[in-house]
Design a protein that fits this description.
about 400 residues, three-stranded antiparallel β-sheet, binds iron/sulfur cluster
Length: about 400
């Protein structure tokens, strides 16, 4: 697949969608973590103010294209969205509710150091109902190795404040398979988060993208990365802890307390991305904005969309992308494939899934496909083999060049 430097013709694209999701990227952080692959730069107030204005301009352009199509999912990610809590986040949210037909609640990422009681009240008053924070580890030596700017006691206090603040769902991210991490530490982190009362835990193994500082250290042999079997062992420990505490698996890496609406970034298959580096997937086209904040702002100040790369998607690619995300969510109804593509799921994918069912990786009752815990893990390892490579190429190139000629995946 080749993404080209081309702004797709967007007229008419939105008439083909019934509903869409919105993603807003805030590319600022108070410090840069050595392992983090996301698009971000150090927060500067003046740049943030210009960025907020540019985001509003981008919304206005799309508002005219989207019309009153319902927006049924809205996610603010980063970087760290809470860096702009007092520098325009409220303005952005007001604008978004005016520009689009919002029929959903707000999900937002945050940094534990921003979660004072006062800030939590402000976040709630802005209408955020689902809050996520990067806890990452619950042992001081791991926090230090990850260069996180807090201690275990401080981050636990932040989690407790968020849990008490009255959100519908509080999600804590942790990273496992850290260098030298023991199985006992993984179990301790899981149990501690349950004890603190979080509604959801997203536990990711440490990914090492080649363009991050930690990625370069691993490749130079100065840091090591756990193998797939060790990761499997750790994930099994977390499954045990969370299932025992009444959580259920809601995606490959997430466990949600039963009965709580899950915190997640993608709830509808088609989405529009706003902000530097945000991607949009509109049925037959995928495109991504420039990663460079200054170029993103300049494009919008000049009245241009900041789209850097795009690719038109064939019917087969759209179907493969659909299956990729359903596997990620770990269960799906086959009828949703028919609704989306007008084709029988088994006729298209049956021959690929049947062997997986024989090996116990998934259960197929004719109507619904559900991955087993083994299937969830191994299919994701497979997906990762491709996606980390794809994402690494797309993000690595886009970070280096604001307007690349093309990226071949
Ligand atoms: C945008 S950050 C979360 C919000 C905030 N910026 C923070 O760090 O607290 C998204 C999450 O991705 C996860 N993450 C980042 N880099 C990762 C990596 N290399 N491997 C695995 N997970 C990673 C972390 O769990 C992190 O909390
Ligand atoms: S992990 Fe969070 S705080 Fe650290 S650089 Fe990435 S987005 Fe920023």
């Amino acid at each position: 697949m080749t993404l080209e430097k081309r702004v797709p013709d967007l007229a008419g694209r939105f008439t083909k969608v019934d509903e869409l999701g919105l993603y807003l990227h805030i590319p600022f952080c108070r410090q840069i973590c050595p392992y983090c692959p996301y698009n971000k730069e150090l927060f500067r107030t003046e740049v943030a103010r210009r960025y907020v204005r540019a985001v509003k301009q981008e919304m206005d352009i799309y508002s005219a294209l989207v019309g009153d199509k319902p927006v049924t999912s809205f996610y603010i990610g980063g970087g760290t969205p809470t860096t702009v809590l007092h520098t325009g986040l409220g303005e952005i949210l007001e604008h978004i509710f005016r520009a689009f037909n919002m029929r959903c609640e707000i999900h937002m990422e945050s940094h534990p150091n921003d979660l004072t009681e006062e800030n939590l009240r402000t976040i709630r008053s802005l209408g955020v109902k689902h809050l996520s924070m990067g806890v990452e580890a619950l042992q001081d030596h791991h926090l230090k190795a990850l260069e996180r700017p807090y201690s275990v006691d401080q981050v636990k206090a932040a989690v407790a404040r968020a849990v008490d603040a009255g959100f519908e769902c509080v999600n804590a991210d942790i990273i496992f398979a850290l260098p030298e991490q023991t199985l006992a530490e993984v179990e301790e982190s899981g149990r501690e988060l349950v004890r603190l009362g979080v509604d959801q835990v997203a536990a990711y193994p440490l990914f090492t993208f080649p363009y991050t500082r930690m990625g370069r250290e691993v490749r130079a042999g100065r840091n090591h990365n756990s193998g797939v079997l060790r990761r499997r062992e750790m994930l099994r420990i977390l499954e045990g802890v969370f299932y025992e505490a009444g959580y259920e698996r809601t995606s490959v890496w997430a466990f949600t307390r039963r009965g709580v609406p899950k915190y997640c970034s993608v709830t509808v298959p088609l989405y529009l991305g706003l902000g530097a580096s945000a991607g949009s997937y509109l049925r037959d086209v995928f495109y991504v904005n420039t990663f460079h904040v200054s170029e993103y702002i300049s494009a919008l100040e000049e009245g241009r969309l900041p789209i850097a790369l795009s690719v038109e998607l064939s019917g087969r690619t759209q179907m493969a992308a659909w299956l990729y995300w359903r596997i990620y969510e770990t269960r799906f109804k086959k009828s949703t494939f028919h609704q989306r593509f007008g084709r029988d799921f088994d006729a298209v994918f049956g021959r690929y899934l049947r062997p997986l069912s024989w090996f116990g990786l998934l259960h197929d009752d004719g109507e619904e496909v559900a991955l087993s815990d083994e299937g969830t893990y191994w299919l994701h390892v497979l997906e990762d083999l491709f996606s980390i490579d794809y994402v690494g190429k797309l993000w690595g190139t886009s970070k280096r060049e604001p307007w690349p000629e093309q990226v071949v995946l």
